[in-house]
Task: inverse folding
């Protein structure tokens, strides 16, 4: 124990010295609560917000809700207590994050939802329609498999808004194209190694019968592509996923991934900050700012 | 059948066989060599973690930080293996050193302070996760060299590299636990720490060593995972500590220390892997998968405890 004592004091010292006070200099202050800063796409959105904020000379306080709706609500409450001029919320959950929105509205602070929705209407919504992304991905598969074929679907974390909506969009297209048969569907929990494991197991049970894979995000799509590659089957199977993260773009370039759907982090982040500033100044903005998706394949990869 | 006799986890072995029989009746593909190669490759990461955790749990400790160590070592190894900037050996050594350092930190804090291992490793678990995010800026580290990815996806003489690593680590850990003085001390400390200390065993050193081994094996697991998915992910390894602990406990290691074997842990790891694989092959919905998995874990341990009682 004696050995540890100096470390303990050093630790206390470091803790207290971190706590530097923040200064107000008349800038607009916007509180931002993000779903999870462990997700590449969300980190990109946050970075773009910061860039836009620097450009427009406003101050952002970005906090990470670590996927907890409860934590997110507490963060919004503390933003309200600090008296920020506007709040940008990247909701953790459709229902559970709704009270946070209600609270901000009750405190007369404009709140903007970015990327995903809550059941309570915020002052404005900036994002893309997740169902649309799945429709784009599935339409690509349907077009490629003109004579019909078998498809497997790797879901995101079951019950999350993105998983539910991407599933809804995909099922719509499947229903309209009875020649495409759904062989199996299962969750890969947004995770690359889980997507890979799942695909390996499916290769065992279905083997050459699989013609295409649709994964709810790129991480799982890349995992599935890796499994197919290892099994020597990649050339016969289409793999399509959503998000267009850096790794996925490179994979499209190399041909290991057939297509991904680009969700525009840059425009989402920038548009959210612009809307927040307008609302904070009392100006009007559109209730819904929808940023369109784009299909990325080898033909247009150079634009990304 | 000395092998079976040695197996204190007789009940678990039985559960494992029963599960395999049921699954092979349910799905024809289950028993194929190709499928088993996949199962063993898939469980190799959890196996390395579980072997390390077995040492720690037998001394009466616990290590919750293994999942985070996987993430940190993965990010470090990936950074070193990026674009083939450095030789593969450096990426591997770098990863292992980071894992070992975390293990030593755990061991140091557990032995030098009187803080419970549960709390210490809960702390280092959070520190590790944070470090992984800091080192990678929250983004996956990719573009790894081909020779590095070989560790996760390559084959030597027809055997996937992860399986070779798994077998090697299993043999070394089994010998260390069963046939060496170190192993006997590990059991002695878990059985009765006071008595072990009184009989002249350097308890501090042995405990420190178990955490260090666990850290280094977690580092190895991190390297393997990174090579398998060809990227260092700062958010990888989440919840891995629970899978590893589940495998160890299913394998018959007592959570209060003093009892347990490596073969038991290996069977625990395989049981979890076989169930996951079998349910995927049968295309069972993921909601049901979780319920079935939980029920099987409890059932397997119950069977083991009945077996223990009937022998006593």
Result:
């Amino acid at each position: 124990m004696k050995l540890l004592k100096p470390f303990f004091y050093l630790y206390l010292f470091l803790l207290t010295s971190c706590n530097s006070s923040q200064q107000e200099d008349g800038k607009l202050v916007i509180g931002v609560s993000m779903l999870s800063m462990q997700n590449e796409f969300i980190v990109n959105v946050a970075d773009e917000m910061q860039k836009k904020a620097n450009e427009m000379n406003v101050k952002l306080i970005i906090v990470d809700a670590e996927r907890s709706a409860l934590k997110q609500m507490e963060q919004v409450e503390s933003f309200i207590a600090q008296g920020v001029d506007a709040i940008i919320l990247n909701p953790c959950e459709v229902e559970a994050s709704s009270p946070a929105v209600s609270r901000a509205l009750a405190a007369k602070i404009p709140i903007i939802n970015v990327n995903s929705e809550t059941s309570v209407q915020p002052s404005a919504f900036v994002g893309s329609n997740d169902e649309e992304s799945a429709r784009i991905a599935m339409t690509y598969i349907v077009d490629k498999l003109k004579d019909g074929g078998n498809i497997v679907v790797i879901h995101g974390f079951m019950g999350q808004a993105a998983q539910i909506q991407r599933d809804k969009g995909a099922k719509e297209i499947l229903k309209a194209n009875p020649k495409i048969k759904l062989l199996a569907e299962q969750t890969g929990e947004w995770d690359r190694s889980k997507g890979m494991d799942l695909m390996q197991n499916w290769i065992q049970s279905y083997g050459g019968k699989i013609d295409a894979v649709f994964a709810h995000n790129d991480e799982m799509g890349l995992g599935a592509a890796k499994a197919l590659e290892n099994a020597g089957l990649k050339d016969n199977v289409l793999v399509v996923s959503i998000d267009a993260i850096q790794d996925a773009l490179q994979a499209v370039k190399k041909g290991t991934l057939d297509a991904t759907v680009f969700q525009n982090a840059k425009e989402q982040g920038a548009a959210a900050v612009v809307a927040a500033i307008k609302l904070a100044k009392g100006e009007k903005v559109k209730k819904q700012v929808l940023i369109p998706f784009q299909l990325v394949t080898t033909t247009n990869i150079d634009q990304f | 059948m000395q092998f079976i006799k040695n197996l204190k986890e007789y009940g678990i072995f039985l559960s494992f066989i029963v599960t395999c029989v049921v699954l092979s009746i349910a799905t024809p593909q289950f028993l194929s060599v190709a499928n088993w190669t996949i199962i063993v490759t898939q469980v190799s990461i959890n196996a390395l973690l579980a072997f390390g955790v077995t040492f720690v749990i037998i001394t009466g400790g616990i290590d919750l930080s293994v999942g985070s160590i996987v993430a940190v070592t993965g990010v470090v190894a990936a950074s070193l293996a990026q674009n083939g900037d450095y030789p593969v050996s450096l990426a591997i050594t770098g990863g292992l050193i980071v894992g070992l350092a975390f293990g030593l930190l755990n061991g140091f804090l557990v032995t030098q302070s009187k803080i419970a291992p549960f709390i210490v490793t809960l702390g280092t678990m959070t520190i590790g996760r944070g470090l992984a995010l800091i080192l990678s800026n929250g983004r996956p580290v990719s573009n790894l060299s081909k020779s590095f990815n070989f560790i996760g996806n390559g084959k030597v003489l027809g055997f996937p590299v992860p399986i070779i690593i798994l077998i090697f680590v299993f043999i070394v850990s089994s010998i260390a636990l069963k046939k060496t003085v170190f192993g006997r001390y590990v059991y002695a400390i878990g059985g009765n720490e006071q008595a072990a200390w009184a009989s002249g065993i350097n308890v501090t050193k042995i405990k420190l060593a178990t955490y260090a081994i666990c850290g280094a094996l977690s580092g190895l697991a991190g390297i393997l995972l990174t090579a398998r998915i060809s990227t260092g992910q700062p958010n990888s390894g989440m919840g891995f500590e629970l899978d590893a602990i589940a495998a160890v406990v299913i394998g018959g290691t007592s959570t209060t220390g003093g009892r347990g074997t490596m073969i038991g842990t290996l069977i625990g790891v395989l049981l979890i892997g076989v169930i996951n694989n079998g349910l995927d092959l049968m295309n069972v919905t993921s909601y049901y998968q979780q319920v079935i998995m939980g029920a099987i874990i409890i059932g397997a341990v119950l069977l083991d405890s009945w077996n223990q009682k009937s022998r006593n």
